[in-house]
## 1
Amino acid sequence: MHRTLIALVLAGIGCGTPPPTAATDASDADATTPTDATPTDARPTDATPTDAADGAVVGRSYYRAATAGGFVDYPIDLSTRPVRAYVPDGTTAGYQVVPGVGRADGTFEIVGVPPGVTYMLAIGTDYYVTDQRALDRHFSRPGRPDTPKVTQPTPVTFALTNLSALPIGYYPDVFDVITVSSFGAAFDLGFASPFDAPTLDTTKDWRTGYSLVYPGGPPLPTGDDLHIFHARDDAVAIAGGRKASVRTLLDWFDAGTVTLLDGAPATVSGAFVHVQAPVTHSLSVQGWDRAAYDTAYGGASIGGYGVALIASPFPNTLGLGADLAAIGFSDWSRSTALTASLVVPYADPFPASWSRMLVDGYANFRQFSVPGAASSMYVAGGFKRFRLRPAGPPDLAPGLLLPTDVRINGVDAAPGGRLTFDGTRPVEVRWTAAAGATQYTVHVVQMSLNGTRTKATVLADVTTTATSIVIPAETFANATFVAFSLTAIQSTNAYASGVLVENDLPLTTATAIGGMFRLGTTCGDGQVDTGEVCDTTSASATCDVDCTPVRCGDGLANAAAGEDCDTTNDTLACDRDCTLAACGDGHINRTREDCDDGDAIDSGDGCSAACKFNNVCGDGVVQAAVEDCDAGGDTAQCDADCTFAGCGDGYRNAAAGEQCDFEIHNGVASPCSSSCQLQ
């Protein structure tokens, strides 16, 4: 179970991996993945075009790239993107659309927006509510976006000695990670294995890496830095018989400046430098309180809590860099205590000029499935916090809280269901403010059927400083099922003055996940219309309120069909059989229970009154109420924790042929496939 945290929470906030989007299959995340980042002119451009019409709304979009030579602004080509303004006009549609023009140099201009009004700027799928006339839309990123991209097989052999090898007899909780990073070229390549030899001799196709932040494919370093980091994940015992995930840096190789050519084989060779962890450096987590985070951000399937200390040549709000130390908490077995403490010594071999960033987060997910789909799609929520390393012990209490009472056209956003939508009237989203938030972003994601899978496509990210927004109807064109989430943001950007994007440290976000809604005018009229499978006016034993058949795991709770809640995987509040999670119900909910023997008493069968193990696993005696098997260790059929070996249980059993196991995240947002093999 602890692997889930390192793979997702820390991957999302560090470990050289870009943070997840609101939905995993988003096809157009305009703010972070523009279609063409190749600049026509790398020199900064004026924020106000010289040929701007009097009274026009003007601005520019660009990357502010952090490089070894300083910051360089690169324009984002807007010549092929729709740029427009939505001006409220009191009509049924709610807005007058004023078209604008976007240019290859990143500048844009909209003529015809009346002075003094609050309007909505739209660039692609990004919307910004503002009253400003001169706008700055820049994204601070490490590395250059103008590097050439790899287009054909480019094998690179990594031949390095002096690797800190795993000791003979390593146990399944240990997991090594090699990360190849070029911060100057914004490139990252990671691979994992139990490295049990003192040499690294492997060949990787450069195409298997990715750009840290820029679109267009993996970049090729052209005289850029190249670093190779060797870190180790381990499971460390903490109070109560639980384990915490710990990642520490073991080795570092600085290859200097490197140039690679598209399609040309290359070799990177040398020797790792072992890094030592002095007692003067430690990442300390004292008394972290899961209950406080569960209360503040829980409810969806829990991914756990993680905190990472990251070193990077450039400060950033993406968590990109080398992990000095990282801790993840998701194992609560054999203990009813919901607090955890751990001190992890770490090594820091990097130059003093590098930034040290502390990033922590609490991840949760909500999954949705459309009719006809054999798989679900998740939307991510929870809490993330990015800051420079504080001088003293960090405050790890919950920070920015979620916005509450989120309503869509007056309907509670949390349950999901149906929304009356005629294709003309806009959709209003309204909420209660989160204390300390400086702005908010509403994420609108279309859920659709792609073969037998549920596909997610971002329709809009709408940012405002207010506590309500009205989204134009055309945003939802051709969409039937839509999921909403709302992020509260605490940042230092001067949004009210026209600086639209949060880029600087510190940055904190808290995301509330709403339900999935069916849009239309006929669902609920009692007639089965085109696109509807059923229609019983309201939820019934056979039909959900959104006119789809009842199915546990579709993300929509139907009390009339006996569902107390609805989830694909166990959550803190809901079992995956769509009943409320409770000790004694006979269902083992891994987010909160070790066992469940059908009663909430200690009957001496190895399962306590709190549904925690109190047996002796490994004694060779099978206690049927709490043990599937007991082989005294890992075998092909039995895990060392006395459960049947199985891919997806969150425990990596090498004897059963598993190279990894990230539980519900196998095959999704992790380096582990659905068959528990590294990918």
## 2
Amino acid sequence: MRPNRTARCTSLVMAIALALAFAQPSPAEYVVTDLLPLDAILSDAKAVNASGQVVGYAWGQYSDGSIYSCGFLWENGQSTNLFAQYPEIQGGSALDINDQGQVLGYCYTAAGVSAYIWQGGQLSLLDPLQGDNETDPVSINNAGQAIGYSVKPQEGDPYAYDYRPCLWQNGAATDLSAGGMEYVQAINEAGQVIGVTNAYAACLWQNGALTQLDPGGALSASQPTAINASGQVAGYGCVPGSSSMHAFVWLPQAACGLPAGLNDIGAQFDALLNPANDPGLAVSSRAWCISDAGQVFGEVAVSSYDAASGVETRSVQLWVWENGSITDMIPIPAYSMNKIAGTGSGLVAGSYMTAEWESCGFSWSRQSGLETVPCLEDGEYACLNDINEAGQVVGTCEAPVSVSGYTYTMSHAYMASKVATSVLPVSEATLVRHGRTCQVRVRITNPGTTAVNNVTISAISLGGGVPLTSLPLLFGTINPGASKQCTIQFKNIPAGEATLEIEGSCSLGNISSTQQVTAP
């Protein structure tokens, strides 16, 4: 079976209506950007890094009528065709990007399909293992280590393929199939790789050794979904003899009173949501992501069916588990849930399907709660793929596009960024006056809940446009609850009241402030 090369929003989850009414996601202020790149007809945004660089897939038509497909990189309002300097590449996509700007994707050449790494305009194909002739990528970490598959057609059947999971480092491929790994899922910064064995069991590879995450077989067909910086793994598996799934967390060593090894989170949901063990209720849970602090995020779904009336009742809840306990359960107005993406600090985003078959995006943090991530204007059916520490969310939605005078509904890559309502420029006071020169101390404070990257002040004026002599334009990263300060010097300031105006931007949007200060 050939692994899927595109992220799909098709996961259907069963879940119940609890006594607690559904909590609607709260409206949040976002700037929504259409990333439809390179005059493409359709596109999909796959990943975003800490700097807000976005990668994905674009498909379009040149002026001569010929068709192109390519991986793209979007940053600061501009899109780059990653294949533009490589005419031998016939198409492909970009799937992932790390914080160093290294892009991982796949492309088509005369020799077949190849994984590649692109950085700074240079594209390098990743070689297969000996005896194979194609490669297929999955993910890349900040150390530049990439995981994926080495591929070759099966003998006698050109449409069937044999896959071997592998890791690329400094251009060299390492076979991960020794010990039985068949599928790879994710890699952390330490180079630990999680995946599934040929016996459909979750496993972890590190430095040539393969570890079974569920050696006792408590769950069947177990699937790891995420691994954090400490090597803790989140995932889910089927309950033997049942159609239900149980979320799990695997710990490499005992922590917070929990033993090393696989810890069944799903059993806690059974006890909480079906304490009487009612056979008419089906409780199913999946874990999708895990923060570096060990918080596990997932979904729980419960369903009941009334045979007499033929009515099925469903509900879905987002949940947080940490230190051995379920700490948060957030009802979502969903018929089914799609995959949830998360960050190391505990921001999560995803999308869900309503009973009316509408796909809607959401984000969640403990400070902000559940928030709706808006779609493009005139867009619908949002499917969110990734989120970064600045709260920027990327994905795709269906929106109108004009082609040869006709309007069609196509997939558009887009990004939603929170408006910086919590980033407040504050002028403290005039500190010193030397003749007609004033020094004003300006402090930028982030009292909010989302980390803000690259805060930049683009303009500051005092007294209606009076010139200044020095200005540190870049404040840099300001974390929640933190602030940064600088002293700015202005010339030719008359005594009395003056107006201080500050304009700038940050990763969450634009910031501005107008304040009165005293120039003694």
